[in-house]
Amino acid sequence: MRLVIARCSVDYTGRLTAHLPLATRLLVHKGDGSLLVHSDGGSYKPLNWMSPPCRLDVEIPDADSAAAGVLEQWRVTHAKTGDALLVRIYEVLHDTSHELGIDPGLQKDGVEADLQRLLAEQVDVIGEGLTLVRREFPTAIGPVDLLLRDPAGGTIAVEVKRRGDIDGVEQLTRYLELLGRDPHLAPVTGVFAAQEIKPQAKVLAADRGIRCVTLDYEGMKGTESGAPRLF
User: Fold this and answer.
1) Which Gene Ontology molecular function entries are recorded, alphabetically (predicted)?
2) Which of 161, 176, 173 lies closest to 116, judged by CA?
3) What are 75's strand-pairing partners?
4) Distance CA 61, CA 121 (A)
């Protein structure tokens, strides 16, 4: 990655045209070929950019541009659309390059796998006296997130989502229909568990005889969130 702080102007041409007049900006040229133009304000968003696939060519300015003080020009051209970003550099204040290596990617806290694991360790959130049969219980149409037993020997299938919508309820309905055919598991009831459940999903779940449980993720981690748990 190359980081350049320079006094520059920027022109974008292609499906749209845009112009940034002469000012001091940060130019970020990444290993994937993309170029981002940042100012000191405007939060994290670049003022202008070119996304890959693209190539950067350094050009010698023509006589008129050189007379106006342009030292060099960067032309970044998109390989598919032909859109071009032309950066005219008047003064370079900082220029460094860094090899960042392969990034492992963003690891999100509170994804469905985390919720499923915590819920498997705290099945009392679903109800008292329940025991865990298995996580990712296999079926012919996909795994059920959690399979539980109640004190009376009944089976509870739990579908876990971060945000629960109608699709999640439909998914659990299909699992329940399939599991209910197994005499070793029947009767099977369903619980739809999520950090947030949309009103339409709650209505559909109630119509299907499925109970909804809103999960307090921070509370389940042992961090007091200040929000009451809803059962």
Assistant:
1) endonuclease activity
2) 161
3) 57, 86
4) 66
Q: What is the DSSP string of 121-133?
A: H-GGGT-TT-EEE
Residue 25 CB contacts under 8 Å (≥ 6 apart), including other chains: 5, 6, 7, 8, 10, 37, 38, 39, 47
- Provide the CA 142 distance to its chain's centre, in angstroms: 23
pLDDT digit string, tens, across residues 38-80: 999 877 889 999 999 999 999 999 999 999 999 999 999 999 9
Tokens of 72: 């060099």
Sheet order of strands, 18-29 included: 48-50, 35-38, 18-29, 2-13, 84-97, 72-78, 54-59
86-108 residue pLDDT tens: 999 999 999 999 998 887 765 55
Q: What is the pLDDT of residue 231?
A: 38
**Radius of gyration, alpha carbons of the chain:** 28
Q: How far apart are CA 178 and CA 183, in angstroms?
A: 11
Q: Could you tell me which residues are beta bridge partners of residue 213?
A: 193
Number of helices followed by number of strands (H, E) in the chain: 5, 12
State the average pLDDT for the chain.
91
pTM for the structure as a whole: 0.54
230 against 186, higher pLDDT: 186
Reading the block at residue 151, the tokens are 């004190």
Q: Check if the beta carbon of residue 35 is closer than 8 Å to that of residue 8.
A: no
Helix (H, G, I), strand (E, B) or coil at 169: helix
